User: What shape does this take?
Amino acid sequence: MLATSRTIARRLLSTSRVVCCEEKSKEVPTPEEAGWAFNQVERKMGMYKPHHSVDEQIAYMSSRAYHDAYKGLPIYRWYKRNFKGQSILQPPPRLFCIDKHGRFNVNNACPVCRDEYLFFDYRNPSLIEQFLSTGTYQPIEILKSGLCREQYAQLQAQLIKAKEHGTITFGVDFRNYDFRKYYAWWKAEPAEPVERAGLRLEDIHPDPLVSFPAHKRDKGNDWDQWWLRHDKFARKAK
Assistant: This one.
């Protein structure tokens, strides 16, 4: 009797393992089964994002379809997170919109993930420049951009790569150094400070760092006075 119960339990375990393996294999369908998340598809959850080259992306951004969709504005201007209470509280950005299999795990993806042609690449600087602050070469805040954390990390990485490859031009701050501080044998005086439009760079960007006040400063902790008061009250207690 005991042997039969053991054999039945083994059969149940083996069948459960087979069922679990079949369920795991069915969890990730092929792109032909799940479908492709093209731009005309509104609800993309569970679908695969199509793969396009950089040349196709550049051609798409200069096409009539792109102009009609974004009206000449940055792509994040037309994006709005689908959540409750937008004027009061903005939720933190998502970790990613597309999982490791290439499928959408949300319906309302971020501005770059939702468009099948768009992805950050240093060879297409026009898309990267849309996410830079005005007059600077630094990316805008992640909450303002509406990007997920994965795409924001890609933006920062491709921005550095674009600067290294020269696809994005940027200004380098000029600074005069007093080499007498570094070399004992250096006798020449430092050059005159560089001016742009009558303004000195030292006045715009002061060299000494801004000293921020310490948070919760340690006040009223003169321990000598504390022990004097303690002795005074201790004598009274006696």
Observations:
- Residues 18-25 have pLDDT under 50 and may be disordered.
- The CA atoms of residues 74 and 130 lie 5 Å apart.
